[in-house]
Amino acid sequence: MVLDPIKGFGLTFGTMFRKKATISYPESGVATAPRYHGRHVLNRHPDGLEKCVGCELCAWACPADAIYVEGGDNTDEKRFSPGERYGAVYQINYARCIFCGLCIEACPTRSLTMSNEYELASDSRADLIYTKEQLVAPLLPGMEAPPHAMRLGDSEQDYYVGAMNTPGASDGAQYPEVPDGAPARVQEPEVTGARQVSSQTDDTTREVS
Ligand code: SF4
Ligand code: SF4
């Protein structure tokens, strides 16, 4: 009983000299795990065409009914993806999404992946519905904004079979900009100019662009 205060203060003093576990968020960000499930990305092929074919499999796989897709028909004059169809309308409602990753598992073209971006909070429900324009990956050097003709081959197989054989390649998803002076909030990728996207990786590495 008499020693209890001493024990208590001892614990306090012992804790004072330990490494701090708290961080000054948002000034100091947190590096996520490499396979963290963050905001989605709709990836592109190396020539800029979209990988999404508007098949809606991601929407059907979603247990939270958070995805809305409308497919459209490509034409030779107006082509957004290789093959017949593309995702004309694509929305993810982050007021519903539980970041389970089932949608990216269902995607047959590896169009849909998830980034490490986790700052998605908003006080507006409408703002939490992300549109295709917000989700589609930015254009990297050498890419051309669709619509345009297929540059990598004559058939969609030239695009999609190649993408399946190289699951680590997912061109177009870059790291978000980090403001000057701010600490990096995500771990640096091993490939220059690429953004790590989780859960659709091969067994050995995280998926990078
Ligand atoms: S991560 Fe899960 S809840 Fe979110 S959109 Fe994909 S399937 Fe739906
Ligand atoms: S993201 Fe993938 S699963 Fe969803 S509509 Fe596009 S191609 Fe289909």
Notes on the protein architecture:
It is a single chain. This protein has about 210 residues and is of the alpha+beta class. The chain has one domain: Alpha-Beta Plaits (2-Layer Sandwich). It has five helices and five strands, in the order αβαββαββαα. The chain has helices at about 5-15, 55-60, 100-105, 130-135, 155-165, and strands at about 40, 65-75, 85-95, 110-115, 130. Strands 2-3-5 form a three-stranded antiparallel sheet. It has a two-stranded antiparallel sheet with strand order 1-4. The chain is elongated, with a radius of gyration of 21 Å. Residues about 165-209 have low confidence and may be disordered. Bound molecules: iron/sulfur cluster (2 copies).
Number of helices: 5
Q: What are the low-pLDDT stretches, counting only 5+ consecutive residues below 50? A: 167-209
Distance between the termini: 62 Å
How many strands, what sense, and barrel or not for the largest sheet? 3 strands, antiparallel
Q: What is the topology, as strand order, of the major beta sheet?
A: 2-3-5
What is this structure's SSE topology?
Blueprint: H1 4-16, E1 40-42, H2 57-61, E2 67-73, E3 85-93, H3 102-106, E4 112-114, E5 129-131, H4 132-135, H5 156-165
The structure holds iron/sulfur cluster (2 copies).
Summed up:
This protein is α+β, with helices and mostly antiparallel strands and 209 residues long. It has five helices and five strands.
Features:
209 residues, alpha+beta, Alpha-Beta Plaits, binds iron/sulfur cluster
